[in-house]
Amino acid sequence: MEKSIIVSSEVNVPAIIQKYKDGSTRDYDLFVSKLTNDELDSPSLVACLQGLKECVSILDRDYETLISVILKIGWTLRETAVIQEYQAFILNLLSAHTFYLKACLRSFVRLFLPKHSIADSVSTDQKQTHDDQCLVVHGLIKSITQVVPMTATVLLPMLSNMFPYMTKDTYIQECYVKNILRITQYLPTNRKQILEIVLDRMLKLDVRSPRHEIQECENLECQEDMMDEAIFDMDDSACVIPSVVMATRPSSMEDGGPMSHKEADRLDTLMVLLFTFVQGVCYPNGNLHWEETKKLYKEILYIFDKIILSTHASCHVQFIMFYICSFRRDLCEGFIDYLWKKVQDPNTESIFRQASVSYISSIVARATYVPLSTATMCINLMCQWIHRYIENITYATSTDTLHHGPFYSICQALFYVFAFRNKEIFESRKGRKFAKKLGLQTIVTCRLNPLRVCLPTVVKTFSSVTRMHQLAFCDTIIERNSRNFLPIVSANTSCPSRLSLVNALDSFFPFDPYLLSRSRKFVLPLYREYEGNVLEEDDSDNESQEDDFLPEVQSTTERPESWKNTDPMDYGVSPGFKKVLSN
């Protein structure tokens, strides 16, 4: 009878492999079965790995089963000797047989995902253990990149494909993103691709977290908490609780706690990781590293141009540009210049030109780090462009957002920025002289009638500011527009009964107030709230006189009464696009 080569804990691995190659599988099957045993002691495992390392050159595709078993071994939490031997074997294996690279990397990336989620009450010790395990995995992947040059080519698509689905628990999403961002430390040339993977998945969460849903969830939770307290409150003051709730910002948004909206809570956690990553790259020792900052800025700008600018209904992911532009004035002015070139380029699609100018107006109005000189420069550039556009219109026309969309968007951006920064402008030494040279009266009275198309709140605020300083008189035009605000038939619709209003500039202000509770600490110190008052006129008489046959059209960004904006210049965020007047 043939004597087995496996004797107690001593294993003659080369002999086992050779016998399997010769056609005898008994000892090979016993050896594989031994490796699948989770209770295999560390000395035996070290001996097996050392034996495999000796015959690594003959471990071709016929031994895929053996390699798959080895990859499933829980090696990261073993003794140092096991970890070192395991890493040495993997490096030797991949040096000899690169066709195992994909399987190995998939096994290691899978370790970035924790076995338990936050729903399972993960303890602090468990989190630390998983983090230590991931650091060991990163050490091995780093060594593989030095041995196999094609590692990045295989790894990057894998990182995207293995990204946990957006409905997975917050803790799982956090662990995965934190670890793939760590990969940028030893694959710096692939940082742009890794950031693109992360931002693309965050955008999917962002568009599933509309502003109105976040506000409704947070307000509802706040109301429920306060009503629960009121059950035991026998005072007469309990009856005023609902009204207090309506006027109070939800506590979770103030104290940085978890958010009620599930997708928003996941996005909030990932935004903290991303902000922290950007801060760590740009301020490695507490001081700005300018060269690294410029490099990271260019990478994020590339991603912004590729996926963020073209995404409809994102509310928060674009704040990564808002944040990095605060590090130095050159970055902010470079971002504005990049956007303005898009606005001016007639070869750029109209919808991208409109989105670009909305980003300009929003960052100039909202960012506290944008100086007055930059704001006045932007206002002046927009005014010059508008005047040239008006002069070049050679045919009579009415308000038509389909053909003049960029013009109306730039007008709205001008009104918005001027309303936000007017106090600083008129407090400056030459502010009034600057404002008078803008020719605002010519803009508001031109044939294209921008006051009819721009958002009503922007128009009313701009009108009150210009009337106060006698720069333009918009009230007569606004009143006439309100009387003539009739529905129009879409030019390319097949159904003549489908009507739409001419007001098509629906909330293109991407840096409206930031709602995520934990990550808002990075944004608030840089953020400007509107300091003026929006004058609202009583339109009750006008409403009573409206034709009952006109269709009722409601703005797509109208918000519930329970969270009407505390910031009067908060219009809702929609940096992406809707094709108005289309099917």
What report would you give on this structure?
The structure is a single chain. This protein has 583 residues and is mainly alpha-helical. 57% of the residues lie in helices and 1% in strands. Mean pLDDT is 82; it is low at 1-8, 226-252, 490-504, 536-565 and 572-583.
For the sheet with most strands, the description reads:
2 strands, antiparallel
Gyration radius, in Å = 31 Å
**Low-confidence regions:** 1-8, 226-252, 490-504, 536-565, 572-583
The count of helical stretches stands at 26
Order of strands, widest sheet: 1-2
Oligomer: single chain
User: Can you tell me the overall shape?
Assistant: elongated
Helix-strand sequence: HHHHHHHHHHHHHHHHHHHHHHHHHEEH
Helix content: 55-70%
Write the layout of secondary structure elements.
Layout: H1 13-22, H2 26-35, H3 42-54, H4 64-71, H5 80-96, H6 101-110, H7 124-147, H8 151-161, H9 170-182, H10 191-207, H11 211-230, H12 241-247, H13 251-255, H14 262-282, H15 290-308, H16 319-324, H17 329-344, H18 350-366, H19 372-392, H20 401-427, H21 431-436, H22 440-444, H23 450-453, H24 456-468, H25 475-483, E1 488-489, E2 499-500, H26 540-544
Antiparallel strand pairs: 1-2
Salient structural properties:
583 residues; mainly alpha; disordered N terminus; disordered C terminus
Compact summary:
The protein is mainly alpha-helical. It is built from 26 helices and 2 strands.
